[in-house]
Specification:
By secondary structure, the protein is mainly alpha-helical. The chain contains four helices and no strands.
């Protein structure tokens, strides 16, 4: 029995979310904790990259379940990923300068 295309895409999105979440968790553990209060600590706690991974996982799960929006969850996943890239680049430049 072959899976339907929606089920296959949903499974791939779910696998991608699990893989990316695992990699982010490992990299966060290796990076350590921010010591200074402020933006760096806030971004560390509420990472836009984590929000993106969660939204991709929701998209995969709802696509498999054929309920709850499916690929529409990828639309709000774009903003946190772009914001995460900008914030990470800014933090890199700020830490490099100090």
């Amino acid at each position: 029995m072959r899976p339907s295309p929606a089920t296959a895409v949903g499974s791939e999105l779910l696998a991608l979310a699990v893989l990316a979440g695992t990699v982010l968790f490992i990299l966060d553990q290796r990076a350590g904790q921010a010591r200074e209060p402020g933006v760096a600590r806030f971004v560390e706690r509420y990472s836009p990259n984590t929000i993106t991974v969660i939204l991709v996982g929701i998209a995969g799960a709802t696509l498999i379940a054929c309920a709850g929006g499916g690929l529409l969850w990828l639309i709000p996943a774009v903003a946190p990923s772009l914001m995460g890239g900008v914030v990470n680049a800014w933090l890199f430049l700020v830490r490099l300068a100090s």
